[in-house]
Amino acid sequence: MRLASPLAIIALWQLAAMTSLLSSRILAGPSEIISTAGRLVASGELINGLVVSFLRVLAGFSIALILGILLALISGLSRLGEAIIDPPIQMLKAMPFLGLLPLFILWFGIGEAPKIGLVAFGAIFPIYLTLHGGIRGIDKKLIELGQTLDLGTFGVIRHIVIPGALPSLLVAVRYGLSVAWLSLVVGEQINASSGIGYISARTRIIFCYLANRPPKCEDSRSDRRDGVPALYPMCL
What we know:
The chain is an all-alpha fold. It has helices at residues 4-18, 30-43, 45-77, 79-92, 101-108, 113-136, 140-148, 152-190, 196-212, and strands at 224-225, 228-229. InterPro entries: MetI-like (IPR000515), MetI-like_sf (IPR035906).
């Protein structure tokens, strides 16, 4: 039953595309999308882009996960740590972090660092906030019991905090991964020469060029760079 509504939406979408109620220039139908995806997979372009993007997400998300867990542990187990760490995190989380991409390019250059940095910066907030709430939700009596049994700080974390906060950690990973992919696709559309975000941006540029160029206009060699037509101002 849960699949009924998504399948119905896809069927209506395909019907609208087949009857020209929905122009392919606005939104291609499911069959056309599958056909195009098949060609990209056969050429290897989509697979290569996914591999490159996956490695970038893996690097950035790993940084965010490690830092998020450490900050959440310090803030969740110590009042002093919470007073130092939590206010800046709460302040920074309200920032539109995707708009910081130009600053990341300015700070780290045009290589892999700004894309990985943007992924890490975006993903650390849901990881920290969700895990911090999970740690704060652990029964204080269990922590006091661990201290009474002389487990030590690492023993309390290992035997009480980690099992108690594990559900929150799994939720944090899920939220963090969604933000990580969003950050990467945006970053690749502006500052990349590979990846799924780059493929999307390049396709948009080519479509805009073909849709707006004058009729019977032939492209010269000088109008192309790296296989992509020169841009009209309206395509930027």
